Amino acid sequence: MTLHLAILREPYLSRVLSGEKTIESRFLRIRAAPYGRVAVADQLLLKRAGGPIVASARVERVAEFADLTPHAMTDLIARYADGLCLDDGFSAQVCDCRYAVLLWLGEIALLTDPPPLAKRDRRAWVVLDV
Question: What is the pTM for the complete model shown?
């Protein structure tokens, strides 16, 4: 099992915490984490963008996609729209991405005493060494 730090912006973090959003997604222009780095049963620490770690989740399923075209990206987002809960127009923001990682989340739990973490860079995903 690997531990990951996932940075989420609103309204997506609230949608995950409420159970409305069941699939976390990362759309990437290059092959970078979490692509190729996440497996079933890995743990995620969910951190509010610009804020603290607020929850944890367990990865129940992983799907990775490569060599995506804008058309394929649009189809992918449409196929998983219910679980992704993305805002209108999101497809246009990621149409030039070539890679996608979809993570089905389970065992989501709010953390009352989150672990301390000094993160100062702009990465939205970090594989933690523990």
Answer: 0.94
- Residues 59, 105 contacting (CB under 8 angstroms): yes
Per-residue confidence (pLDDT) for residue 127, from 0 to 100:
94
- Please state, in angstroms and rounded to a whole number, the distance separating the CA atoms of residues 105 and 61: 8
* Rounded average pLDDT per 10-residue block, the chain, 130 residues: 95 97 97 96 95 96 97 95 93 92 98 84 86
Q: Where are the domains of the chain?
A: 3-114
The position carrying tokens 């999101």 is: 90
Using the CB atoms, write b or e for 44-73: b if 16+ within 10 Å: bbbbeeeeebbbbbbbeebebbeebeeeeb
Q: Which of 60, 51, 58 is nearest to 4 (CA)?
A: 58
Say if residues 59 and 42 touch (Cβ distance below 8 Å). yes
Q: Which two tokens stand for residue 104?
A: 């089905």
If you classify domain 3-114 with CATH, what class do you get? mainly beta
